[in-house]
Amino acid sequence: MHLEPETLPTRVVFTPHKSGPRDLSVIIPAKDEGESLEELYGALTRTLERMGRSYEIIFVNDGSTDNTQQVIERLHERDARVVGIEFRKNFGQTPALAAGIDHATGAIIIVLDADLQNDPYDIPLLVAKIDEGYDIVSGWRKDRKDTMVTRRIPSLIANYLLNSASKTPVHDLGCALKAYRREVLEGVRLYGDMHRYLPIYAGMNGARIAEIVVNHRPRIFGKSKYGLSRIFKVIIDMVTIQFWANFLTKPMRFFGMLGLTLGAAGILAGIYLTYIKIAHGAAIGDRPLLIFAVLSMLAGLQIVGLGILGEMLSRSYFEAQGRKTYSIRKIVA
Fold first, then answer.
1. Where along the chain do its domains lie?
2. How high is the pLDDT of residue 191?
3. What highest taxon heads this organism's lineage (predicted)?
4. Is 232 or 49 the better-scoring residue by pLDDT?
5. CB-neighbour burial class of residue 229 (10 A; exposed 0-12, middle 13-18, buried 19+)
6. Among 200, 231, 278, 323, which is 20 to 30 Å from 239 by CA?
């Protein structure tokens, strides 16, 4: 299938490219996508050449077992603007994006998947929106070409949960096609599956976010790496995001409030039991309330202690120099 144009109008450390900075950096994580890379490269170069801006295309081979690396090296030999980063093993999409961002030089960083479902001809639309003054532009796959049960329904549920938790005005956080103003990513460290939630984290710091409807194409090579299990991951991520948004720099407010509430409940229960023991001579040794009082006070002390530990870890997080979340075998540049 040949793509045709529709409409044309981790603390990240940026390493200077030997050929100098570019206007655009396109980052593409790839895991066993060797069949699609030639087609994707062709569509990208046709689009980027028409835009008249300097660019680089960064492929990150995330531990592929097919011919992905050979295709990337072949593309680099043909076009020096193609950069290839090969991981020693499969680390995941977030570390792959972190590696691409670390080695990007563009003033605008564009991310898309390697499976041809994102349409490269939408890139000018994203860049035009960045030029309007937005910091992040996210694609919205309004008319998705995925299976209903295993892809679309989980995505709808995931996006509803995340939007409810984060209040971020984005319908489709799972869409890989996004454009970022470079400075928005400065100082960001990517962990876990954080790449999906970059608009949320950036929005917490005041980034201006826009969303545009983009074309979405059916997968023609390989198979999807996501399914129904994503819903459960999103629920866990939602809790993490809420904590990150509200308590990352002040964890004691969360743990302290919870601990004091439990401790206070235990103390009140203890006072009541003491009163009925002294005033009425009632036996309290076999009362469930006594167990509740003791456990609540102990739990309160433990949670307050956890809050103090969280404060220490939070300060270490902001002050320490963290390690990379990936290991590079070699760079083709």
1. 24-247, 251-316
2. 67
3. Bacteria
4. 49
5. exposed
6. 323
- The mean pLDDT value for 39-66 works out to 95
d(CA 100, CA 113): 13
Given a cut of 80, whether residue 123 has pLDDT beyond it is: yes
Q: Distance between alpha carbon 298 and the CA centroid of its chain, in Å? A: 37
Q: Among all chains, which residue has been given the structure tokens 């083709």?
A: 332
At 31 the pLDDT is 92
| Overall average pLDDT of the 300-313 stretch | 81
Per the listing, tokens 């050929």 go with 19
Domain 24-247: give its CATH code: 3.90.550.10
What's the mean per-residue pLDDT of the chain?
80
Could you give the 3-state DSSP secondary structure of residue 317?
Answer: helix
**Closest-CA residue to 255 (of 299, 306, 295):** 306
Return the number of other C-beta atoms located less than 10 Å from residue 213's C-beta: 14
Strands (E), the chain: 24-30, 55-61, 82-87, 108-111, 136-140, 178-181, 209-213, 328-332
122-124-130 Cα angle (round to 5): 110
| CA angle, residues 167, 168, 174, in degrees to nearest 5 | 125
**Least confident window among 83-87, 113-117, 281-285, 293-297:** 281-285
- Mapped to the 3 state alphabet, what secondary structure does 256-290 carry? HHHHHHHHHHHHHHHHHHHHHHHHHCCCCCCCHHH
Q: How far apart are CA 63 and CA 76, in angstroms?
A: 18
Three-state secondary-structure class, residue 17 = coil
